[in-house]
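Hi support team,

I submitted a single chain yesterday and got back a structure, but I'm not sure I'm reading the token output correctly. Could someone confirm the output below corresponds to the sequence I sent? I've pasted both exactly as they appear in my results page.

Thanks,
R.
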Amino acid sequence: MIKYFPKAILYLIAFILLPVFLGAAPTPEEGKKLFVSKQCASCHDKKMKADLTGPALAGAIERWADYPESDLYAWIRNSQALVKAGHPRAVELFNQYNKVVMTAANDITDDEIGSILAYIRCTTDGNCPGGLPVVDAGGAAASVGESGTPTWLYYALFGLLAFLAILLARIISNLNLVAAKQEGVDYERKTLMQTLTGKGVIGFALFAAIILGGYTTVNNAINLGRQQGYAPEQPIKFSHETHAGTHKIDCQYCHDGARRSKHSVIPAANTCMNCHSAIKVGSVDGTAELTKIYASIGFDPLENKYIDDYTDKSQEEVKAIYQNWIATNYMKTNALEELDNEGERIVEEQWDGIVSSLTNEQKKTVQGPIEWIRIHNLPDHVYFNHAQHVTIGKVECQQCHGKVEEMGKLQQHSPLSMGWCINCHRETEVKFADNDYYKSYVKYHEQIGSGERTGVTVEDIGGLECQKCHY
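Hi R., thanks for writing in. Yes, this is the structure output for that exact sequence:
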């Protein structure tokens, strides 16, 4: 039976090595990847310090200390199941954060949850085995620990196990040689090269390559086309933090299509002019960004009126109008009677900014619409209707777009993946009360009235049917 030992050893090595490469053991580094891939970052601050759609995760583990650890794992896996079971901590959190449903992750393993919790601890208190880079209070990466990264540790472990596999193979070869001599039979001892190129080793290598290749391919395929965190430079530095945060402008004042059409629409420059015909100097960039709006639509901020036949003006005429405005404002701000060298530099620099922002290879003049860069973009085969969600479903903008009122530079907050949408439809309860749109669901109203059911999810009214979201 000794001659069958080498294959058994190889299978044992395979069993040990594959979890190492697939990141099965809980580690902060694996938790960092899961924090993004499992969409935790959609609702929770990556620095763990600020409340967003969900609570700040710093100290979250300690806040569950009065309950069994299994309760915290159950909360992370499926919070609504714990809420419906009446768990006091779960109900308290659900009510505290405006009953926003946390996306379920029923397929997440205990080891994966352990990795996420390890990453939270690592980020909040610096307890990072292996020196995982974390983000400090100022947002800069800081290295924690001196012992190297977990990736280095994996490679070292792989090398050690590979050495042990070779060593065991040689030991088994010697045992086979001794057994053959005792039995009086001929036995040809394999060289190290013959062992390494044998069927068992090659078979294991192919098996590992297929598993690892498949794992990598599937992960990359799932992430293909997704752009969570995408934050391009726009032609005008428009700050949602200033407008929606500081000045409390309602999202639907500018994106008025969200309540009545499929698209939320990008506001035209005349919407901007409702305020900026009076507010002509920005609180952050002065005239640099607002003048781009005036130049696109043809508004003269000095004369406080729209320019006649603006589209027929030459670029030199347009340049003179807005350079005059920039220079006049600069002199007024600095109490000057004539433009100094710094003022001349600012005038030229801001005009160059206007030209670069409002023109391109196809659009040769600054006159005309501002060509904003689209951030949120679904595949062509996906149907999404803003009005259905905003007006009928009463979904808050922040549930999908994050706290835009805190974004100086807008970015895509959620993954907008199919799984993300499906989980939301499975867990989000439809607002039936005082909503004429749902009066036709008589059966569900009767069941709610009799106490037979507590609510109706989007899934219950067909929200998972393929044709609802796909053409």
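A quick pointer for reading it: The chain has 21 helices and four strands. Let us know if anything else looks off.

Best,
Support desk
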